[in-house]
Amino acid sequence: MSAVGQVMSALSGPREATKRVLTGFARDWAGVPRGPLGRVSTRWVMPRLHAAVYRVMAPAVQLRADDELLEVACGSGVFLAQQAGQARRVAGLDLSDLQVELARERLASRIAAGTAEIVKGDAGQLPWPDDSFTVVTCMGSFEAFPDPEKVLAEMFRVLRCSGRAVLNIGERVPDGTTTHRILGEIWVWSEADVRRMVEQAGFIDLSIEYASSAGESRMLEAIDRVTGALGQDLRIVHATKPTQPGQ
After folding, report:
1. Rounded Cα–Cα distance for residues 104 and 196 (Å)
2. For the chain, counts of helices (H) and of strands (E)
3. Within the chain, where are the H helices?
4. pLDDT at residue 186, rounded to an integer
5. Burial class (CB in 10 A: 0-12, 13-18, 19+), 100
6. Alpha helical stretches, state H, 84-240
7. Exposed e or buried b for every residue in 44-77, given b needs 16+ CB within 10 A?
8. Residue 59 maps to a domain
9. What is the CB neighbour count within 10 angstroms for residue 134?
10. Torsion of the alpha carbons at 93, 103, 24 and 57, rounded to the nearest 10
11. SS3 assignment, position 155
12. Helix axes 148-158, 191-200, angle to 10 degrees
C-alpha cells in the first residue's frame, strides 16, 4: 500500500466516526427530535430557526377560507397555528413524538372543535384517503426525506383535483451544481432535478420562485458559514394536481 493509501486508511475510522456523531446529532436535534436535546430543539430552537421560512411561505400558500390544508413534516405546529384561521380545516403530520405532542398543544382548541388534526406518521405513507385536501405544503424538511419521490407521490394522492402544492424544496444553488447529499443524509438539488422530480409525480403548472431569508436568522447564517449546506434564498415550488387524471 502506498504512503497516501496508508494515511487514508488510518483516517477512515475517525472520519467515519465523526460523520456518525454529526449525523446522529443532527437527527436528534432537527431531523426527528428526541431525547433531552430534541426537547430543547422542539420547544425553543426550531421555531426560531424556521421563523424566516414561515414568513416566506405564508404569502406563497395564499390560503382561502374554504381550503383544507395539510402540512407534511409540520414540526411543532407553529405554521399551522398561524394559518389555521385562514382555512376551513388544517392537518399536520410529523414523525417525532415530541413535535406531535407540542403541535397538539398549540392547536388544542382547533382540534377540540374538529377543524384541526395532528398525526404521527411517515411522510412517505400519509394516513389520509385520496382527495382529502385542497392544499399541501412542506417546508424545511424535504432535504431530509430519504425517498422524496415517494413523498411527492403521496402528496399528489391526497390532493383533490386542481389542488395546490406549495413546497419549500431546498435553496438556490450556484449554476452547475449537481444534485448530491451531504453527510449521506441531506439532499442538495439542482433546479432542473427538482422540476423533473415534481413533474414525474404527476403535477402540472409548475413554477419556481426564490425568496430571500437573508438576515432573518443569525443561527441559520451561522450554520451556513460552517457547513455550506444551507442557503438564504429559499426555493419555493408551486404546482397543481390536474383537473382530470392523466391530464
Report:
1. 35
2. 10, 9
3. 3-26, 35-40, 46-49, 51-61, 78-83, 97-106, 108-113, 148-158, 191-200, 218-227
4. 87
5. buried
6. 97-106, 108-113, 148-158, 191-200, 218-227
7. ebbbebbbbbbebbeebbebeeebbbbbbbbbbb
8. yes
9. 22
10. 70
11. helix
12. 50
pLDDT digits (tens, 9 = 90+) for 16-31: 444 444 444 444 444 5
Instruction: Please report the pLDDT score of residue 31 as a whole number.
Output: 57
**Is 27 among the domain residues?**
no
Looking at the DSSP bridge assignments, the partners of residue 146 are none
| Cβ-proximal residues to 239 (8 Å cutoff; 6+ apart), any chain | 164, 165, 167, 198, 203, 204, 205, 206, 207
CATH number at residue 51: 3.40.50.150
As a whole number of Å, the end-to-end CA separation of the chain is 59
Q: What is the span of the domain harbouring residue 133? A: 46-240
Q: How far is CA 81 from the centre of its chain?
A: 17
Side chain identity at 246, as an amino acid letter? G
Q: Give the integer Cα–Cα distance in Å for 138 and 223.
A: 21
Q: Considering the domain boundaries, does residue 226 fall inside one?
A: yes
C-alpha cell at position 237: 415550488
- Joined together, the cell numbers standing for residue 123 give 411522510
On whether the CB atoms of residues 99 and 75 are closer than 8 A, the answer is yes
Contact between residue 44 and residue 50 where contact means Cβ atoms under 8 Å apart: no
Q: Which three cell numbers stand for residue 45?
A: 430552537
Q: How far is CA 108 from CA 44, 113, 135, 138, in A?
A: 19, 9, 22, 21
* Per-residue cell: 11: 483516517
Is residue 58, in this structure, part of any structural domain at all?
yes
How do residues 82-139 score in pLDDT, each as one tens digit?
999 999 999 999 999 999 999 999 999 999 999 999 999 999 999 999 999 999 999 9
Residue type, 106: R
Number of domains in the chain: 1
Instruction: Tell whether pTM > 0.90.
Output: no
